[in-house]
Design goal:
The protein has about 675 residues and is an alpha+beta fold. Helix content is about 35%, strand content about 20%.
């Protein structure tokens, strides 16, 4: 049965009838040291222009290597063809191991314990021994051309309100280097990375395709992220967690979508991918019908290899890999993009796309404002992976300064029929050819089911543009993995696993219930939980100082946790009436810059010398009476509502040394008596 659905209205697509399948891959940075070096996991938030001059730089080119089975992974082979040079900036937390000039060290045991804890929380089964693997990655994000990853556990379960989601694998792996800049040159791209993030431990959690709807995907991502944060051992902040989506419908195939940072966008991104797969399926059968080829089955399980081989031969014959120099056709072209590139020595190459006129499409929005799926965009994203700025295709011309006369001239020079389309690229000859090779291959793929590939969410100004995606690389296969021989196997003992299972951190619900028993407001409790401050809060309440819950919670929320010991002492002294509230921040900040063994004695001494000792009640009453005499008319006019404005005047008169609660109470008592 042919799949039903309106591609222009992704929100209306029915996941169940389309054979929707979805799984999640979560990558979360751990709050430990680096995985295979003993370097700290500090990140330097520098842009390319901020890099200190004394940081070392090294330059490399990478090539793909064979996997364990003797084959080169398709994704790695593709990356190698992109002809890129990589420059690596070495910050203070990157040494010889990060540069791949020294053997890696065994796993950071702290990181192993954190991932084992997560495994237990997800009811997963640990493997008997940790065997690191090398995962081939030739995009420059690793200096060695591979990323180390270690399987830790399998067969877990994530509980959501919509239903249980299986967890297939939980791995411990190295994070990649952080890209700073990409520059285009006539000889290929030069990509600069910084190595501060390289080697940070990540937990990778991949679910089974048990997610039933796009909304369930969002729910599952929230539930999994909350569970990871419950360990209190993961990093927080932008980029510390990444969600990838594995999405397919029956008439399409599995696509991995990266860059889903904002969980609110997940349902929309998935629905747009469903619409794209449905559109491409229908386009495939249109192309096959015109070529008198067997139709593509609506369920990929019914695909017959013999028929697909026949179609592949026909597509290769119909769309030849031929390149044409159209320099003469562009002699009078007024496009600034074309003329500027030609003036720099670029070559304009074109390819014929027989039978594709009207099938490449033009930019149009769907009913929710996202770009409708079209083959032309797929061709452009495939070409851009060669490092070019883009391509021109005939369905979108005349435009971009290219006139109707230019189009006619090109069509004539390529000897096209009425049903044919064309595409051209203006770039260095080798690069234009590589880009157009990708265009031809993508057009040939259009005769088949969509390719399994990795795609990126289109991001503009730090957030998804409209929920659409572009091709990034082919989906990697098993050939990318081979054993890491430089790191010894590590057994997971029964005793270690049992110790982990008997000391699991409480869940968010359990933490909130515990907070609700304290003398703090519900808003405070939620803020403490969201800020992951509850453990510190209870340590202060139950510790030697016995801090009051409300005061300690307020201090943590207001002043943060940069110096908890000093803050706890300051709050204790404030609550026992020995220093003023105004003294907390300066005393805590000053103690952070010193090595102080007796904080209580030091703070009391500093509070005395700096005037942070609270005024006694008689001094407060004298100050209040003086202000009331000075502002008698104001009090007469405002009554009790004058308390707030007068508070500041009294505090100022006392030099900030008064307790705000006492000042407020004295003001209220005296104004109340005066009004009787």
């Amino acid at each position: 049965m042919e799949p039903l659905g309106d591609v222009s209205n992704p929100a209306s697509l029915d996941p169940d009838s389309l054979g929707f399948m979805c799984g999640l891959e979560i990558h979360q940075q751990l709050a430990t040291g680096k995985l295979h070096s003993r370097m700290p996991s500090e990140l330097y938030e520098f842009g390319i222009e901020d890099i200190p001059e004394d940081w070392n730089h090294s330059e490399r080119r990478l090539r793909a290597s064979q996997g364990e089975g003797g084959k080169i992974d398709i994704a790695a082979r593709f990356e190698q063809r992109r002809n890129r040079t990589f420059v690596y900036v070495q910050p203070p937390n990157a040494g010889l191991i990060e540069l791949d000039e020294a053997p890696p060290l065994p796993h950071d045991q702290d990181a192993v314990d954190v991932v084992l804890t997560m495994s237990a929380m997800l009811h997963a089964k640990p493997v008997p021994a940790l065997q690191p693997m090398r995962k081939t990655v030739v995009d420059g994000s690793n200096t060695s051309g591979f990323q180390r990853t270690t399987l830790v556990s399998t067969n877990g379960q994530l509980l959501t309100d919509t239903g249980e989601v299986g967890v297939s694998v939980i791995c411990l792996e190295e994070d990649s280097a952080r890209k700073l800049e990409t520059k285009s040159t006539p000889d290929g791209e030069v990509v600069t990375y910084t190595l501060d993030r390289l080697g940070l431990p990540l937990v990778e959690i991949a679910t089974d395709p048990d997610i039933t709807t796009p909304e369930h995907a969002k729910e599952s991502a929230i539930a999994l992220g909350s569970l990871l944060r419950d360990t209190r051992r993961v990093r927080r902040g932008l980029g510390s967690i990444r969600q990838d989506l594995n999405v397919s419908i029956a008439c399409g195939d599995r696509v991995e979508i990266k860059g889903c940072q904002d969980l609110e966008w997940i349902p929309r991104i998935i629905r747009i991918e469903m619409a794209r797969q449905l559109h491409m399926y229908r386009l495939t059968n249109q192309l096959r019908d015109e070529a008198k080829l067997p139709p593509l089955p609506p369920d990929r399980r019914d695909t017959e290899i013999t028929i697909e081989n026949r179609v592949a031969m026909a597509a290769k014959s119909r769309v030849p890999m031929e390149f044409h120099d159209i320099s003469e056709s562009l002699l009078s072209c007024e496009s600034s993009m074309v003329s500027n590139a030609l003036s720099e020595g670029a070559t304009p190459l074109a390819v014929r796309l027989p039978g594709f006129k009207g099938k490449l499409g033009t930019k149009s929005p769907d009913q929710q404002g996202a770009q409708l799926p079209r083959l032309g965009r797929e061709l452009a994203s495939a070409a851009k992976l060669a490092g070019v700025a883009g391509i021109f295709h005939s369905d979108e011309l005349p435009s971009y300064g290219i006139s109707e006369e230019d189009v006619i001239t090109i069509r004539t020079s390529l000897e096209l029929s009425e049903s044919d389309a064309f595409a051209f690229c203006v770039a260095p000859h080798w690069q234009a050819k590589l880009a157009l090779e990708s265009v031809i291959e993508r057009c040939r793929m259009a005769y088949h089911r969509i390719p399994q590939e990795v795609r990126n969410v289109v991001v503009r100004k730090g957030q998804p543009d409209d929920g659409t995606t572009t091709a990034l690389r082919p989906l990697p296969g098993g050939a990318r993995m081979y054993p890491e021989t430089d790191v010894p196997l590590q057994e997971i003992s029964i005793e270690r696993w049992e110790s982990i299972c008997s000391n699991l951190p409480p869940s968010s619900d359990e933490r909130l219930q515990r907070l609700s028993e304290l003398d703090i407001s519900h808003n405070q409790a939620e803020s403490v939980l969201n800020g992951e401050l509850d453990d510190i809060l209870f340590e202060g309440i139950e510790g030697d100082l016995g801090l009051p819950a409300k005061a300690w919670a307020s201090a943590l929320l207001e002043f943060g946790t940069s110096n908890v010991p000093a803050l706890s002492v300051a709050v204790h002294l404030r609550e026992t009436g020995q220093i003023t509230r105004e003294g907390i921040l300066p005393l805590v900040e000053e103690s952070s810059r010193r090595k102080i063994t007796d904080l209580i004695h030091w703070m009391l001494s500093e509070a005395t010398s700096r005037g942070f000792i609270p005024a006694n009640n008689s001094e407060v009453e004298d100050a209040v009476e003086a202000i009331m005499i000075e502002k008698a008319d104001f009090i007469s006019e405002r009554g009790m509502s004058a308390v707030g404005p007068l508070m500041g005047l009294v505090m100022q008169k006392l030099g900030g040394s008064a307790d705000g609660k006492i000042v407020s109470q004295v003001l209220r008592d005296k104004i109340s008596k005066q009004n009787l």
